[in-house]
Design goal:
This is Glutathione S-transferase. Helices cover 54% and strands 9% of the residues.
Length: 202
């Protein structure tokens, strides 16, 4: 069966992965168009803003990762209908973007090894803990809302990334100090609708 939805992103997790996870949760049929980084220069010229991810729905193209994630969340039943609960989910997403996504992303652009090490050391000891503490406070029930949402999925991908040990000078056990985030990670990774996806994803 064909789909009228096509997600285009690189062939790795990054900003496209929470969207893929949301679609998987809701059994949303879509085309997972993964491009190789070597092909990016030619693909870039075809995108509206020269960036990924992009989403095509019925031939129309949409940009911005969190906007696409919200769309996926609504399709999959992962975005609250209650206005205040949705506000909390959006707030958590914005904090995640301004802290872990932006700051770690900034460090990845540093070429000098010693400079990068010093920058990440400050992230771990000074910059990220206040954000992590606030996010931990927000998900005191094991989720950012009353049940699993796109904010939990986005945060889970950050935790998985850091726990992998792939980020040099950022300890894999960074989140061990945050019990609510740790519980949220467990809730998401063990969710019956996602377990198979996580076990088999690339």
């Amino acid at each position: 069966m064909s789909s009228n939805i096509k997600l285009t992103y690189f062939d790795f997790k990054g900003r496209g992965e929470p969207i893929r996870v949301a679609f998987a949760y809701g059994d949303v049929l879509y085309v997972d168009n993964r491009i190789q980084y070597k092909d990016w220069p030619s693909v870039k010229a075809t995108t509206p803003l020269g960036q990924l991810p992009i989403l095509e729905v019925d031939g129309k193209v949409y940009t911005q990762g969190f906007a696409i994630l919200r769309y996926a969340g609504k399709k999959a039943g992962l975005y609250p209908s209650d206005e205040l609960e949705a506000l909390r989910v959006d707030e958590a997403l914005q904090v995640i973007e301004e802290s872990f996504n932006a700051k770690i992303g900034q460090s990845m652009g540093i070429q000098d090894a010693e400079e990068k090490k010093a920058f990440r050391s400050k992230l771990v000891t000074e910059v990220l803990p206040p954000y992590a503490a606030k996010l931990d406070e927000y998900c005191d029930g094991g989720y950012f809302g009353n049940s699993i949402s796109i904010a939990d999925i986005a945060m889970n991908e950050i935790i998985v990334w850091i726990k992998s040990g792939m980020l040099e000078d950022i300890p894999a056990d960074f989140f061990d100090a945050y019990p609510n985030l740790t519980q949220m990670y467990k809730n998401v990774t063990e969710d019956s609708k996602l377990k198979s996806y996580f076990e088999n994803r690339k």
